[in-house]
Every structure is written in structure tokens, then in C-alpha cells.
């Protein structure tokens, strides 16, 4: 198992859960995401991007970190470039840290859909800001370690078939869910949360600091 953390430019709140999640991982930073390294106690081995959002202070602070520079006019975001590099280096598990918030809603949405795309290819990914945590869902079964009372939602990126939710305030049994449905928003953990899906693509977004 080779775990990688990719530092992205969104919001990050340092929590015990997030520190446990990133512990022992190799670290890549995407442009301004390197700003989160110090607060998380992480040392990036590579800094990637077009460096349009890295301040002069960050450039000076991390001048010794090897860089992989790209032009600003390119076909991939800095985050996707970093993810591709992590897989090239042999990543089997990736944590996208700082995947939410910030000034770019389009980037946050891309992180969610991109992670789901890779999950459909058999990759293991988690997205976290410390405030929120997201887990892609494709066909299969999933167990989560959220404490009792944790708020969570499941957002469908396609029609879902055979959706089961156990260990929740509002359980579901073999539900068909259409794309755009709000049925699975604002649930809460009651016991041991287990989700299974027969077909489709979705993402589970939880607020693990709320218990």
C-alpha cells in the first residue's frame, strides 16, 4: 500500500481525524496548496503547477522543494496533474486535502467528479478539508467509521440502482435514485454506517467534526 496526500488550494481545518488520515503518506503539493503543509506537519517531496497562486512568501519558504512547472495555458488543473503524478509514482491510496472551499467552486466540483471517475476505475480516494470528508461511491459495499450523529449526504452523479443505507437515521433499502434527487441529503449516522450500491456513481459527503 502506497498512500499519497495531494495538497490542494481549498480550505483546511486541522483536526485529529485529518492528521490520522494523512499520517505516513508521501506528499505532493499542487501550486498554492503547499500553504497547508506546515499546519499538517507535512513535507512535500514535489511541488507541481503553473505557480499562479503561490505567494512570494511560499516560494521562499519552500524553495528547496523540487518543482515540476507547467504553463498556465494547459489542458489539466494543477490538482489533476498532481493526481496523475501520484499514480505514476505508484499511489494505491490518495487523500485530496483542501479539496473543498476556496474561491473556485468549479475546482471543488471537479475534485468530487474526478475522484468518482477514478474510483470507477478501481482507485481508492478520500477528499477532506477537515471540515468535510468525501468518499466516492461506485458499485460495491462500503463501511464508514464516523461517530454516532455525524451528518452525511449522498449526492448522485448518475442514476443510482440498488442503493442501501444501513446504520443511519433514515435507512434505505434497494432504492432507485434519479440524478438530481435530494432524497439522500442531510442524513445522520446511527450506529455503524454501511452503504452499498448495485450501479451508478455518487459521492458521500460527511461532516465528521459534528458528532
UniProtKB/TrEMBL annotation:
The GO terms describing molecular function are: ATP binding; kinase activity; thiamine binding; thiamine diphosphokinase activity
Task: Write one Pfam family the protein is assigned to.
Answer: TPK_catalytic
Q: What UniProt keywords apply to this chain's record, in alphabetical order?
A: ATP-binding, Kinase, Nucleotide-binding, Transferase
Reported EC number(s) for this entry are: 2.7.6.2
* GO BP, one annotated term: thiamine diphosphate biosynthetic process
Q: Which CDD domains match?
A: TPK
EC top class named in words: transferase
Entry keyword annotation includes Cytoplasm? no
Q: What InterPro entries does the record tag this protein with?
A: Thi_PPkinase, Thiamin_PyroPKinase_B1-bd, TPK, TPK_catalytic, TPK_catalytic_sf
Q: Where is the Thiamin pyrophosphokinase thiamin-binding domain?
A: 140-203
* PANTHER family xrefs: THIAMINE PYROPHOSPHOKINASE (PTHR41299)
- Its protein name is Thiamine diphosphokinase
What is the organism field in this record? Phyllobacterium bourgognense
